[in-house]
Design brief:
By secondary structure, the protein is α/β, with parallel strands linked by helices. About 40% of the residues lie in helices and about 25% in strands. The chain has a single domain, classed as P-loop containing nucleotide triphosphate hydrolases (Rossmann fold, 3-Layer(aba) Sandwich). Helix 3 (about 85-95) packs across helix 5 (about 140-160) and helix 4 (about 100-120) packs parallel to helix 5.
Amino acid sequence: MMILVVGGSGSGKSAYAEECISRIAEGRQKYYIATMRIFDDETRVKVEKHRRSRNGKGFITIEQPVSVGSVLKKIKGGTALIECISNLTANEMFGDEEPQPYEAVTEKIISDIKKLDSELEALVVVTNNVFEDGIIYDKATMEYMKALGNINRKLAAMADKVVETAAGNPVVIKETN
């Protein structure tokens, strides 16, 4: 089973995703696949805040900024939460000297998520909604947004449930039984 949680910055999506995977796990192992790379004080503070919020919740954290499918070497069943696809997309796209094409980034991430979804009992995936400001950005940023949009659509199609969080309130967009 896969659940996609989408929302804007500060919308409550991380807290909702953690609650969701904790309910689903029911005593099974819970993995937290963290994708953010620490590259400055701002990201360091954000990562520490997320670590503190998970403290005592029984997660095994795996720092995996790229190639999330490779965590299957470290995981033996159970459930997992991926936080978050927007960071993963940026890491995959801009990790080399030249940005990777959005099609290749989309294909790689979707392939990795499919692997995880097929091997785990439950997977909760967190992603950002970054498309509502209407601003035209530089070419690289627009390619990133295009990749993230494609990935979000494909993940939503794959997911058994899609939830959007707004001001801390989850709204179910899709649910299959």
